[in-house]
Amino acid sequence: MTKTDTSTPAPETHTASSQSDLKERAEEAVETARKSVERTVATARDEGEKALSEAQDTFMSAQDSAMSAVRRNPGLALLGAVGVGVLLGMAMRGRD
């Protein structure tokens, strides 16, 4: 009688099992990476939206302050605009 050793799988079965395990681990790693990227993108989007909102608020506040200053002192605002125009004109003329 010949006794068959059943404790060690055939080489083809062992290789197929290893490939299956490797494939499963790779799929799990890909899924973990995908979830991590999604969380990172969501966090970056949220922070970007928050920064944009804060920048818009700051701009609107600065615009309101400027408009208020012009309304309080229109002569001074006009004088400042003329001064800036003169300086720009001199700077442009000096480049020729």
What does this structure look like?
- The chain has two helices and no strands.
- It has helices spanning 11-72, 74-95.
- It starts with 10 loop residues before the first helix and ends with a helix.
- The protein has one domain (11-95).
- It is mostly helical.
- The model has no long low-confidence stretch (mean pLDDT 88).
- The chain is elongated.
Give me some keywords for this one:
96 residues, 2 helices, mainly alpha
Task: Summarize this entry quickly.
Helix content is 88%, strand content 0%. By secondary structure, it is an all-alpha fold.
Helix content: over 70%
Instruction: Give the radius of gyration.
Output: 36 Å
Cα distance spanning the termini: 109 Å
Question: How many structural domains can be distinguished in the coordinates?
Answer: 1
What is the general shape?
A: elongated
**Fraction in beta strands:** under 5%
Largest sheet: none
As residue ranges, the low-confidence spans are: none
Number of helices: 2
The total count of strands amounts to 0
Structural class: mainly alpha
* Average pLDDT over all residues: 88
Secondary structure: elements and pairs:
Elements: H1 11-72, H2 74-95
Helix pairs in contact: 1-2
